[in-house]
Amino acid sequence: MKHWARSIQVALVFIGTVVGAGFASGREVLQFFTRFGYWGPYLIIVSTFFFVWIGAKVMLLSAKLNARSYEDLNKHLFGDYAGRWVSHAMLVVLLGVNAVMLAGAGSVFSEHLNLSYQTGLIVTMFACFLLLRKGMNAILTINTIVVPLMIFFTLFLLFETLRNPLSDQWFRAPNEQSPWAAWLSPFLYAAFNLSMSQAVLVPLGSAIGDALVLRKGAWMGGIGIGALLLAGHFALASRMPGIDQFDIPMGGIARELGAWLHWVYVFLIFMEIFTTLVADIYGLTLQLHERTKVSPWMLTAALLLLCFLAGQFGFGTLLSALYPMFGLLSLGWLFLIGRDRALPLPPPGPPSPDPSGPPPKLRA
């Protein structure tokens, strides 16, 4: 039972890391799947396969290498020299992704809470900075609470969608995009999200260290991500093309269900954005601290300030421009980790440390 409990915890962190601003808002699902009409579910199945397979390999390799950060994994995949430059590029990409996360939080405040966009950015930055003082344990705890709630409400939206007379529109919607663009989309989506998830999956795999726990967690997490993608796709496709006008389209769907459910779901969207921002900033801070030895809290503050400045471009603009480009850059990484065969066996020694124990601290 302890193995299963820890595997579920790993799965929830995996889901919470991927389900960020683009996913929880629905904008990412529209960009990579729903706009391809009836092909959307088949593209999601392809992505789910990669989440299970590559997610497990990232965590298992990290456990075997005892990797302290994603640079250690990249050096194993690309060699010392190239791996260092790949990690430099990933720092820039991760910073762009975190800017999108922060911009998504600002859009939630402006589009659904009747507060200014800048207020959303500042409040989220401050809360992120405070939570990051607690380290990996805080990330595990917050995902254990938020992810099950997001799964429940996403399934509830799917149930409400199935009662809609247009619920089968996903099956009839034509694909007006290029077939090449459609079938490249799941590879881009999986490559981008998995390479960005390294910031959390690498230290998580090293901290857990138990191959059986990590494999189970990867299976449950990958399938969970696929199920959420399908649920979000069906809900959005039944309301196309009108739903495309929202920066936070899932929030627009929740608004149809009444004020109370709308507020609850918008809060959950914000929390999913927030958890991914916290996890990614944590990973970036570890990486930069290993390189520079600068105080972690100063690095965290500097990263959040850079994200704030980039967030001035707006959520929709950043996501549409950056995510497909980052996906293309991540395809080489996906290929190399997919062909790597150096996987560890279940450790025969004493049990691995409990992740609920004393976490690594991001303190000066």
UniProtKB/TrEMBL annotation:
Segments passing through the bilayer: 42-65, 85-109, 139-160, 180-205, 217-240, 260-282, 294-315, 321-338
tRNA-binding found in the keyword field: no
Tree of life domain: Bacteria
InterPro entries attached to this UniProt entry: YkvI-like (IPR038728)
Organism from which the protein derives: Cohnella cellulosilytica
Region (Disordered) residue spans: 345-364
Name this protein carries in UniProt: Membrane protein YkvI
Keyword tags: Membrane, Transmembrane, Transmembrane helix
